[in-house]
Write a structure and sequence with these properties.
transcription, WH-like_DNA-bd_sf, transcription regulation, mainly alpha, RNA_pol_sigma70_ECF_CS, RNA polymerase sigma factor
Length: about 180
């Protein structure tokens, strides 16, 4: 290990020995006792401290570490909430999912075809956002970064894209108001 690696290692070790317990305790409270999640957040917090060691005073790092940890918890929560709610599959009472019933497969194929045709009827920018958010399951922020547009634009395009999609499906008689 060279001198700079030893210095880096010592920096993180000293910060952790000094503030690790208090940061972990705070994060545990924020994540409702989920120890594994708390450890992950604490690890990310100290990684960020290591990345900012040139501008971080070890004697005054406690509030900074607690703020970073708090922000990581909030970001993780927002990321979870940004995803659309998942819909459970219907119960398999008659065994039709297991059998691979031909009629069920045909229905699924027709639904996919109808959705594909409806998506083709949307403006390209609306279609791109809906695919990113609902099919690729990216967050609004991830979609904004991927498409190179502001977050507000993604939200607006989602709203208007879903509205347009509903109208297209209604026009084709797939759904009703």
């Amino acid at each position: 290990m060279d001198h700079s690696q030893a210095r880096d290692s010592e920096f993180v070790r000293s910060l952790y020995s000094r503030y690790g317990r208090s940061v972990l305790g705070r994060v545990l409270g924020l994540v409702h006792g989920d120890y594994q999640r708390a450890e992950d957040i604490v690890q990310e917090t100290f990684l960020r401290a290591w990345q900012h060691q040139d501008s971080l005073d070890p004697d005054r790092a406690g509030p900074w570490l607690h703020t970073v940890a708090h922000n990581l918890v909030v970001s993780a929560y927002r990321k979870i909430k940004a995803r659309p709610a998942e819909s459970p599959l219907p119960e398999d009472e008659g065994g039709e999912w297991a059998k691979g019933d031909g009629d069920l497969e045909l229905d699924r194929m027709l639904e996919r075809w109808q959705m594909l045709e409806a998506m083709r009827g949307l403006r390209p920018e609306h279609r791109a956002v809906l695919i990113e958010v609902y099919y690729l399951r990216r967050t609004v922020a991830e979609t904004a970064e991927h498409l190179g547009v502001p977050v507000g634009t993604v939200k607006s395009r989602c709203y208007y894209g879903l509205r347009a999609l509903r109208n297209v499906l209604e026009e084709r008689g797939v759904t009703s108001r």
